[in-house]
């Protein structure tokens, strides 16, 4: 028997509808919810209008509880349908350009160390300076160095940089073993010198 021929009576509207008109609910014997998608949408809207804070908290709780599974699902969807994802992202950006720019700026301000590490990695790629044997642990240690430098800058009110002991332009690697934390003044004074 195909899912198209299975009919279920909705508990709210009392209409008999086909299987796919209901959300998946593994706990039920039919494998589907007892309320159709249309009624569920109306019910959820009423609940949100009556108490938006409660509904937002409920959604956040669900999202946080299932974050890893949702992220895996989203990643799989992006891989399966890259064009659709890119088109959706572009359309969203086009309609929300100012909000997207503000969100990016806020992220850069709040995660300066991570952002700086990312920018350094991008520069290193330009010079082909990231060793092939670099693994995830090496990448994390590198990011931590940039976060520490940012923390020192905030704590001491002196700007700190993560410096390549052997500069990238002189063939140095973008690897944590070639990095050191210096004050901005020391780093700028050093420049691309290497003894």
Describe the structure.
Helix 1 crosses helix 2 and helix 6 packs across helix 7. It contains eight helices and six strands, in the order E-E-E-E-H-H-H-H-H-H-H-E-E-H. The strands form three sheets. It has a two-stranded antiparallel sheet with strand order 1-2. It has a two-stranded antiparallel ribbon with strand order 3-4. The chain has three domains: 1-51, Wheat Germ Agglutinin (Isolectin 2), domain 1 (2-Layer Sandwich); 66-110, no CATH class; 111-190, no CATH class. It is 58% helix and 12% strand. The protein is of the alpha+beta class and 195 residues long.
Jot down its keywords.
Wheat Germ Agglutinin (Isolectin 2), domain 1, two-stranded antiparallel sheet, single chain, elongated, 195 residues
What is the fold's blueprint, element by element?
Blueprint: E1 7-9, E2 16-18, E3 22-24, E4 32-36, H1 37-50, H2 52-65, H3 67-80, H4 82-95, H5 97-110, H6 112-126, H7 136-156, E5 160-164, E6 179-183, H8 184-190
Helix pairs in contact: 1-2, 3-4, 6-7
